[in-house]
Amino acid sequence: MTYNYYLSSEVLLFILNHELYIAYCFVTLMAGSNQLPEKYHEMIFNWNDSLKKDLPFPELNDESLRDGVQSPSVYEPPLELKLKFIDRMIDLKIDAADIGFPGAHDKMFNDCVAISKYIRENDLPLSPNCAARSSINDIKPIIDVAAKAEVKLEAAIFIGSSQIRRFIENWDQKYLLDLAEKAIAYAIDNDLSCFFVTEDTTRANPDFLEKLYLTAIEAGASRVCISDTVGHSTPVGVRKIVDFMKNLIKDTKEEIKLDWHGHDDRGLALVNALVAAECGVDRIHGTALGIGERCGNTPMDLLIVNLFLEGYKYEGDTQAIIPYCNQAAKMFGVKIPHSYPVVGQDAFRTATGVHANAVIKAKKRNDEWLTDLIYSGVPAHIFGRDQTIEVGPVSGQSNVVYWLERHGYDGTDTLLVDHICSLAKNRRRIFTNEEIRLIVNNYRKSKEQK
Ligand SMILES: [Zn+2]
């Protein structure tokens, strides 16, 4: 006799449906949980599964050409490099780009016109937007850019919103509400679409935020942006403020999109952006390599990497991430840090004996997933890279054997292997390929002379 024997047919049907639903959810979650092929699921346990994997990949807004340029350590890029960078954005299927602040100076204005024309003439799937303070003086140049380039532009109209800023500037609430309303109405009247950005949103008083956003939406803003301008938010704060904004938007009964714009002052920009995605914001802002004012912004490249690895359905080219970062580094005249995830020169490189030994064993099985995952949380081959074994003071014999065989030398010559190992132990850093080649050549010569 079973427990179900006593249940009515309706209840039985309910239980059956319910169990089917749970089974369906489980299968959906597993399928979308990460990018790992199924045969490795038993080898790698995954605590990372989120319950919200049914969310679509968020839209992306690239701020490199505006917030990136504001980094105190970069060079202002020439137009030609900006256009090449736009091409790299297209490869990554980035949806929108802040192409600059045309009210800042003539070069920026001319670059905004040229970039907008480039997007239109090449029919690129990228929506350009330009930044402006809530002032006619800043919005007028955007109208002029749109007219000269014959494109539809979005104006990112921003205003200070936190109490601390209002205190410093002696602004009262009514003054700011009037500014926002007039600026947005002016932009809309001149055929710009408008997204409204409250600076320092994450430290602003919610009562005033509500007044500001309702004013902006009433004036015609079709998108609003939460800005963690000074990198104040923690993941807990992100959940709360996104929730607050979603409820506020819902109450207006208007179709308003919600953006997240984060900075990295506490080192939390990337994780905050991932939380914002999970909370269902429509669009996330980022810059290449996280380059931006002070400690920078959400790194666009790592945002894509992590959303992809988490199982969000990404339609761009994962192998375009490295060219995008390299182009940004060239454009801004900066070096990519050696340990930068995925892109840095050391991201998939080891000289440690134990690690190299395991990687070499995996390589011998001719299984690139196994090789990639034995000592890395990121599958290198997905991003166009592979595992590299070096030889240095913490290496073992297997590093040397592998290096020799990989470079066309005899890895079975144990005297040579021991010779390179003993030289490596007395060094303070790893060998370059040229240094090992020189050792091998000298070893061969001394052998011939004997
Ligand atoms: Zn910013």
Describe the 3D structure.
With 450 residues, the protein is of the alpha/beta class. It is 47% helix and 11% strand. It contains 16 helices and 10 strands. The protein has helices spanning 9-33, 79-91, 106-121, 136-149, 163-169, 173-189, 206-219, 235-252, 269-278, 300-309, 321-332, 353-364, 368-373, 397-406, 414-425, 433-449, and strands at residues 59-62, 96-100, 127-133, 154-160, 193-199, 223-228, 257-262, 283-286, 349-350, 388-389. An 8-stranded parallel barrel has the order 1-2-3-4-5-6-7-8, surrounded by 7 helices. The chain has a two-stranded parallel sheet with strand order 9-10. α2 (79-91) links the parallel β1 and β2. α2 runs antiparallel to α11 and α4 (136-149) runs parallel beside α6 (173-189). Bound molecules: zinc ion. Zinc ion (ZN) binds at residues 67, 229, 261, 263, 297.
Write the layout of secondary structure elements.
Elements: H1 9-33, E1 59-62, H2 79-91, E2 96-100, H3 106-121, E3 127-133, H4 136-149, E4 154-160, H5 163-169, H6 173-189, E5 193-199, H7 206-219, E6 223-228, H8 235-252, E7 257-262, H9 269-278, E8 283-286, H10 300-309, H11 321-332, E9 349-350, H12 353-364, H13 368-373, E10 388-389, H14 397-406, H15 414-425, H16 433-449
Parallel strand pairs: 1-2, 1-8, 2-3, 3-4, 4-5, 5-6, 6-7, 7-8, 9-10
Helix pairs in contact: 2-3, 2-11, 3-4, 4-6, 6-7, 8-9, 12-14
